[in-house]
Amino acid sequence: MKVSVVKNILDANDRIAAENRELFDRHQLFTINLMSSPGAGKTTLLEAMGRDLGGRINIGVIEGDIQSSLDAERVAAAGLAAVQIETEGACHLDANMIRSSLANLDLAALDLLVVENVGNLVCPAEFNTGEHAKVMLLSVTEGDDKPLKYPLMFRESRVLLISKIDLLPHVRCDVAAIRRAATALNPDIRIFEISSYTGEGLDQWHGWLTEQTAAHGAGNR
After folding, report:
1. 3-state DSSP of 92-146
2. How many angstroms separate the CA atoms of 218 and 53, rounded?
3. What would the pLDDT profile of 46-103 be if each residue is shown by its tens digit?
4. Rounded Cα gap, residues 65 and 25, in angstroms
5. How would you label 21-38 residue by residue, b for 16+ Cβ within 10 Å and e otherwise?
6. What Cα–Cα distance (Å) separates residue 90 from each residue in 32, 67, 120, 124?
7. What residues are paired with 145 via a beta bridge?
8. In terms of Cα–Cα distance, which of 147, 118, 123 is closest to 39?
C-alpha cells in the first residue's frame, strides 16, 4: 500500500510538472531547479548571478524555505524578481507549489527562472517541478563523500557546481574525487568549480546559463 501511495503522489506531481514545463516553453523561459544541502551557498550564488548577469538576462527566482522570507529578501535586493514559498515543514518543493507561485511572476518578462529548492540532499531530486535542468550545488566544506552518500542527486542533475573553492586551503576535500564519483554516476554531468565570493569559475557558469537561455529562444524575443 505504501508503495502505491508514493507512486500516486509522484505520478500526480509529474502531470503538474508537465503542465509547468509547457508554460515555461510557451514563454521561452529556461528554468533550473537549484538544489543543495543547507548552507552550501545557493542564495549567495543567486546574488552573484544578479550582479553579473542582471544587465544581460532577466532572472526570476522562486525561493523555497521551510520558514522565513530572508533568502527572497536577499535575492530581491540583488535586483532579481523573487517569490517566496514557505513549505511549513515540507522538505522539498513540488510541481504544485511551483504552479501556485507562477501567477506572482511576469513570465513574459523573464529569460531565466531559478527554483531555489529547500536545503536537502534527498527529497528535491525525486520531485520534478517542470524545470529544464536540475543543478546541484556542493560546497567543499561538506566533504568529498556526498556522491557516494546521495547518488540520486548526482544522477538527476545536469550540472554540478562545486562551490566555496576559495576555502580549499582550509578544509579537507578532494575535488578530483568528487569529479570522479559524480561522472561515474552521471557521465554527462557538467561540472564547474566556483566561488561566489571571489568570482572564480563564475564566468564559465554564467556562460553556460547564457547559452541555455539563448537556446530556449529568449534572445529572439
Report:
1. CCCHHHHHHHHHHCCHHHCCEEEEECCCCCCHHHHCCCCCCEEEEEEEHHHCCCH
2. 14
3. 999 999 998 899 999 998 876 567 778 898 888 899 898 887 667 888 999 999 999 9
4. 26
5. bebbeebbbbbbbbbbbe
6. 20, 10, 10, 10
7. none
8. 118
| Architecture of the domain defined by 2-220 | 3-Layer(aba) Sandwich (3.40)
Percent over 70 (pLDDT), the chain: 92
Tell me the domain boundaries of the chain: 2-220
75 grid coordinates: 535575492
Return the pLDDT at 55.
81
For the record, the C-alpha cell of 95 comes out as 510541481
The residue type of 111 is D
Residues 137, 161: Cα–Cα separation, whole Å: 5
pTM of the model: 0.91
Report the 3 state secondary structure along 133-153.
EEEEEEEHHHCCCHHHHCHHH
Nearest one of 31, 16, 17 to 61, comparing CA atoms: 31
Q: Which residue has the cell 523555497?
A: 64
